[in-house]
């Protein structure tokens, strides 16, 4: 291929020189040929890319095709049910509802109802009418110790930080939340001025970096926390233990993204790399975690305090519940995130293969809370791939009280799933800090879209509940959802995921399937007992036999 390039250069320049004396267009030929020549020789002599050394100039086509491949596939070849992480069918309905366009489906479903995993809601012959003119019911968040309960919408904006999203995206989301009367989770990047600009209800998420409430050493600062909590738009506080995008992996704020503005908001030094540790420094075990929850409740004058997690080791959540029972301190809500990932950029292994998927995690959390007789005082929030009313209903049926959506809300803003969120080149100005790109996102227009999408999704949720004969969406349960198990067998959710009897884990006669987690869990540490390290003669891991013996005597 190099020889072909040299041959092309020889004949092209020869022809150009020959025709230059009598053909005026030859000067335009030089304008094209000079750059090609320079690029070609650069490709041949550079040492980084073998492809370019062997195929000068034309080898660049490979990178061009890589860049445009997602767009070609999305707009020319995808069917309605293709496309990941969000298929075209769901993207389309989000756009339609956000714009206020017709969202009805002609000619029947495009899903294969014989596929294993197909799910549906069982309607009733006693269906009731859903009156859209009536006020939408709210979900009260706040347990016995909460002094300022919050009445939340059933569908809200999930955690997305300023820094990950542009200032205009944050403004539009928050104004949409204000217009639609639902909450907006700040993400762990703290409360920015853009979150406060339009007065939408906020849930302040506090991660392991304690951004916005940290001291110079990165530890939790009660005074800084109390100062931010004076803002009345902050309705709840969420402690982030882990997230679905990268559970067990601390976040990294690169030095070039740590602008003076972001540093001021997060209380860090500008222009430096900031690593969020994988775990919290304010507590190291479930008992200390309960104390931290009570501390935040006191500092916030009794506002709802909760935590977010992606389920990993099952016994760790059991340990947290044991600590709630022992101390009498309970969070007001628990947000369950699915291991299938979210808007946050993450390593491939974490997005694909770390953390429990949402459905199984939601079932587990709700069952354990019920088993410890805690569910009645704690609201469960489902976070992960909720785009339509059916997604909300399915989560509520499992046991959730509220749903959060991040990607759905991003698409309502205008996100086109270009999959460049981690490059700072988001073409719609949503996930970027490039002010030129962010300027393309018009807050007035996009906030209306967010509010419309929320309203249409909530209406669809209530409509499905009405079709099931229910006058209150809170009464949806596992018996209302069916799933195809095989080509010839279907089961209800309550058959696949049978519920526990309230308080059964408080007795010695608990179900056999929870025996391992109950034995492995301890209020003194998060990790299962079989993984606890001893330091008698240096650190070493206990053997399984030692763990079993300890578990039997515990």
UniProtKB/TrEMBL annotation:
Gene3D superfamilies xref list = Aldolase class I
List the molecular function annotations (GO) for this entry: glutamate synthase activity
Task: Write out the transmembrane intervals.
Answer: 5-22
> SUPFAM superfamilies this protein is in?
FMN-linked oxidoreductases (SSF51395)
Q: Ranges for the Glutamate synthase domain?
A: 153-469
Recite the UniProt keywords alphabetically: Membrane, Transmembrane, Transmembrane helix
**Which Pfam families does the record associate with it?**
Glu_synthase
Any keyword Transmembrane?
Answer: yes
The alphabetized list of GO BP terms reads: glutamate biosynthetic process
Q: Which domain of life is it from?
A: Bacteria
Task: Give the matching InterPro entries.
Answer: Aldolase_TIM (IPR013785), GltB (IPR024188), Glu_synthdom (IPR002932), YerD (IPR027283)
User: Family assignment?
Assistant: Belongs to the glutamate synthase family.
Q: What is this protein called?
A: Glutamate synthase
- Species source reads Aliiglaciecola lipolytica E3
């Amino acid at each position: 291929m190099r020889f072909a390039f040299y041959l092309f250069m020889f004949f092209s320049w020869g022809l150009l020189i020959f025709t230059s004396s009598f053909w005026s267009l030859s000067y335009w030929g030089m304008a094209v040929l000079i750059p090609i020549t320079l690029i070609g020789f650069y490709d041949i002599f550079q040492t980084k890319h073998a492809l370019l050394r062997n195929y000068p100039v034309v080898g660049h086509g490979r990178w061009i095709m890589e860049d445009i491949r997602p767009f070609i596939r999305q707009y020319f070849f995808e069917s309605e049910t293709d496309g990941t992480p969000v298929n075209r069918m769901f993207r389309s309905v989000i756009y339609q509802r956000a714009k206020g366009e017709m969202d009805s489906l002609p000619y029947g479903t495009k899903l294969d109802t014989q596929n294993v995993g197909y799910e549906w809601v069982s309607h009733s012959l006693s269906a009731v009418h859903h009156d859209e003119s009536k006020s939408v019911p709210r979900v009260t968040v706040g347990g016995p110790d909460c002094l300022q309960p919050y009445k939340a919408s059933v569908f809200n904006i999930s955690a997305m930080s300023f820094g990950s999203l542009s200032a205009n995206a944050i403004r539009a989301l928050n104004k949409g939340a204000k217009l639609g009367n639902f909450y907006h989770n700040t993400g762990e990047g703290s409360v920015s001025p853009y979150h406060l600009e339009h007065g939408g209800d906020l849930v302040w998420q506090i991660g392991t970096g304690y951004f916005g409430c940290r001291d110079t050493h990165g530890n939790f600062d009660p005074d800084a926390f109390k100062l931010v909590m004076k803002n009345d738009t902050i309705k709840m506080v969420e402690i982030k233990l882990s997230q679905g995008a990268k559970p067990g992996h601390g976040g990294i704020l690169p030095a070039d993204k740590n602008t003076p503005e972001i540093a001021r908001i997060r209380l860090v030094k500008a222009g430096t790399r900031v690593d969020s540790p994988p775990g919290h420094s304010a507590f190291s075990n479930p008992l200390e975690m309960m104390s931290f929850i009570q501390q935040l409740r006191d500092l916030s004058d009794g506002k709802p305090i909760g935590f977010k997690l992606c389920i990993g080791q099952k016994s760790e959540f059991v340990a947290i519940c044991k600590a709630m029972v022992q101390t009498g301190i309970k969070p007001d809500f628990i947000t369950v995130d699915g291991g299938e990932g979210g808007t946050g950029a993450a390593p491939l292994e974490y997005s694909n293969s770390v953390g429990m998927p949402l459905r199984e995690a939601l079932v587990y959390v709700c069952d354990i809370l019920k088993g410890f007789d805690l569910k009645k005082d704690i609201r469960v929030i489902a976070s992960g791939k909720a785009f339509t009313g059916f997604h909300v209903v399915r989560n509520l049926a499992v046991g959730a009280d509220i749903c959060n959506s991040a990607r759905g809300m991003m698409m309502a803003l205008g996100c086109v799933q270009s999959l460049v969120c981690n490059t700072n080149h988001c073409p719609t100005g949503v996930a970027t800090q490039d002010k030129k790109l962010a300027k393309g996102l018009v807050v007035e227009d996009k906030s209306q879209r967010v509010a419309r999408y929320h309203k249409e999704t909530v209406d669809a949720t209530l409509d499905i509940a009405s079709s099931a004969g229910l006058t209150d969406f809170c009464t949806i349960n596992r018996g209302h959802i069916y799933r195809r198990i095989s080509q010839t067998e279907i089961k209800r959710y309550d058959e696949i995921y049978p519920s526990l009897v309230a308080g059964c884990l408080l007795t010695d006669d608990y179900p056999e399937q929870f025996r391992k987690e109950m034995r492995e869990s301890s209020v003194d540490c998060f990790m299962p007992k079989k993984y606890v390290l001893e330091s008698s003669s240096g650190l070493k891991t206990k053997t399984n036999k030692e763990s079993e013996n300890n578990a039997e005597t515990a």
